[in-house]
Each structure stands twice: as structure tokens, then as C-alpha cells.
Amino acid sequence: MTTDFSVRPARPADAGSLAELRWTFKQEDHEGRPPTLARPGEEAEHWIHDRLRDGHWLAWVAEAEGEICGHVFLCLVERMPEPYEDNNPVGYVTNYFVLPSHRNKGAGSALLEALKQHSRSACLEGLIVWPSERSTPLYQRLGFQPPEELLELPLGT
User: Fold this and answer.
1) What separation in angstroms does the CA of 40 have from each of 26, 30, 60, 109?
2) pTM for the whole structure
3) Helices 15-28 and 41-54, interaxial angle, to 10°?
4) Percent of the chain clearing pLDDT 90 (strictly above)
5) Helices (H), 29-98
6) Got the DSSP string for 114-149?
7) What are the C-alpha distances in Å from 24 to residues 21, 100, 122, 142?
């Protein structure tokens, strides 16, 4: 395993690169044959910039040779006040991606470790994720487990 990368918190100034990687990430879902774009990348760039700036969303990036080669995002989900327990937020982990040329070199694990360290220091209640089939083994190696108390109601459009 090589470690010719570094991991750091994302900044609003990274939004352009993060939006480009988001579009690359989503193209993998379509096996290189993506449908016609429904929205421009600039929309994602503005969205990411605004969320990172206001602090409700956090992200970490992996960099190699000065370029962002991976990222993971964390959305803080507030919980209702609780009279008998803490109501620390829950972290929703999403948009986890490493460029294919940098996979299996430790960047993905390092991104999730940085996210987990921050989450512990921020006293989050826990982390949740909807993993892909491909990412499930990695999440499980890093301690994520199937939920015991989560139900989902898909609301098809």
C-alpha cells in the first residue's frame, strides 16, 4: 500500500474540483454511458461551496501531487432535544469516492478514518450510510454494521 497522498478537510474553495469529481463519480453508476445531463456542473459547484461555507456539511479530501483524488462528505443531522439523554447530531456519510487510479492505495480508508476521528471528537451520536454493493465491504472493515433500529420508506417519484 502506498501513501503518496494526504488527507485534509475540504474548503469552500475546493467546490469546483469536488463538483467535477461528483460528476465523475455518478458516471460510474452508468458504466461509462451516462444519460444526458439534467443539470450543469456549476450547480453542484455552488451547492457544495454554500454547504461547506455554512458548516452544516463537512468533507475531507485526499490529495496526490496537488490534485484532489478522493473525497467523503458528512452531513450533520440534528436531533430533537431530549430531556433525559444527550441529543448529539447523527452524521450522514455520503459522496465517498476515490478516482480509480488511486484506489487500493489507502486513500479511501484514510478519508473515512479522518471523518470518524472528527465525528468522535464532535461527539456525534453515530454515523449512517447507504452504501453501494461495492463499498459495503470497506465500510464493514472500518466498523460500520447493519442497523438494528432503522426503517426506510422509499417515496418513489
Assistant:
1) 13, 17, 23, 30
2) 0.88
3) 120
4) 60
5) 41-54
6) HHHHHHHHTT-S-EEE---TTTHHHHHHTT----SS
7) 5, 10, 31, 25
Query: Cell 450522514 maps to which residue?
Result: 92
Q: Is the dihedral of CA 59, 2, 139, 70 positive or negative?
A: positive
Average pLDDT, the chain: 89
Eight-class DSSP state of 11: -
Cell numbers for 122:
464532535
The number of residues making up the chain comes to 157
Minimal CA–CA distance to 21: which of 50, 55, 59? 59
For 103-122, how does the pLDDT look when each residue is reduced to its tens digit (9 = 90+)? 999 999 999 999 999 999 99
Instruction: Report CA dihedral (103, 110, 97, 18) to the nearest 10 degrees.
Output: -120
Report yes or no: 58 and 118 within 8 Å, Cβ to Cβ: yes
Query: DSSP state, 39?
Result: S
Strand 90-98 and strand 57-64: pairing? Answer: unpaired
Cα separation, 81 vs 58, whole angstroms: 23
Q: Which residues pair with 64 in a beta bridge?
A: 67
